[in-house]
Fold this protein.
Amino acid sequence: MTRLASPNRHAQEVLAFFDSPLFIDVQCAGIFPDSKTFADATPNQPLQAILSAYEQERNQTNFSLVTFVNRNFSIPEPVDVRFNTNEPLAIGDYITRMWDVLTKPADTGSDYSLLPLPHPYIVPGGRFREVYYWDTFFSALGLALSNKTDLVHDLIRNFLAIQAQVGCIPNGNRLYYATRSQPPVLALMSRFVDTDDASLQAALQAGLEHEYKFWMQRQTDSSGAASLRSVQLDDGVTLNRYFDTSETPRPESYREDCHLAAALPEQQKGTFYQHIRAACESGWDFSSRWLKDPQNLSTIRTCDIIPIDLNCLLYLLEQALAERATGSEAETYRQAANTRAAAIQHYGWSEQHGYFLDYHFPTAQQSDVLSLAGVMPLFVGIATQEQAQRVAKVLEKKFMREGGLVTTLQTTSQQWDSPNGWAPLQWFAVKGLMRYGFDDLAHKIMQRWNALIANHYSTHGVILEKYNVESPNSAVGGGEYEVQLGFGWSNGVYQSFEYLLNSPPQT
């Protein structure tokens, strides 16, 4: 069962349902092609009454599980992202109108598995009918350029509210996401807040401190290097990893997780589920970054890896806290940031590859998977100019494709590998390159990525969550579900790149 620190009665009931024979039977029967569908369904009467009816009816002759589910639950629909217009919309107009489509009002009640939010918020689109943590930052890039600053502030207030309720900013506002977070981007989100909004600034300060404690905490009775999301290395330096305390299949991917774990010894399944969940916390679900065998998802080992991107974002968080604090507290955060920067250099930089890599701490070895996470030391400014030049060369020679940057150099069946490209990774790479003066390469990436999105839109009338950057006219695939339409972060990054490409050069 997914565990929460202090679940209320409704949460306890829903979490117990995820362990019920009815939920397990529906998910394992594959009634819905996407396991998330039933995890998001809304019961038409009290859950206990439905469960009692199931126990009474399930063994009757001619019992139909499909009929029972359709009678007792309202099945959610994907977010509709197509407009019925006489004339096709230009892509810029489509994105501007799409922000209204993707905006949900404040939640007024308890909607089964949904964690209610007090202010309006943005959903990504398609099967993603709730807010997502790191997605929201990239949507906010476009919202800010679309004069929707008030909505951006509402998004931040929602994150602070759910953080107070759950103990972290979760993967998304669903109960089944509440034991994991996502890449910590609250410090980036804070840049959208006007400095004269004293109340929001004060709430943000508390929220940033809370986020830092969440990532740095250790269990009091822990032994060994790793505890929760914190890893103490042999030299005494602490870096961080993705993690999840739950050792059970994900409710939203129950069938898929059970299928993958079926061949494992029983005593290994709990750890396997934690690795799967930790990869979801990373946002890269799934990628060869996390796999011992790049072609075999059952070899996942996310919790054993110190990710370069996570630690760069935590460096940014430490910097933000240092800037907001005063006196000895500011110096403590500043020193923590400096220590982390040095550790990222020590454990992450590969002289052989001229690139930054993840670190597998049980074997004290760097990963051999080159991924776009390696641009993050440029994005946060801890790479040297020489390192940045070498990273830029690797990006141009090895990652650049017709449609932009490929996610990793590994071609697998996972969606966060070749041949796929993702909007947030293009943005991090572009901003990192521009920070070190590689504007020509940054512009080339932006032009190729936006051309890819615009060309696909002109043919199909939609924007996707991910794209095939190696063969832009080919279908995009990989992962646990069909490619989704909408799409929040693709829209936001497209608008951001259009702005950057059309901005006058800085002198």
Remarks:
- The mean pLDDT is 94.
- The longest strand covers residues 230-232.
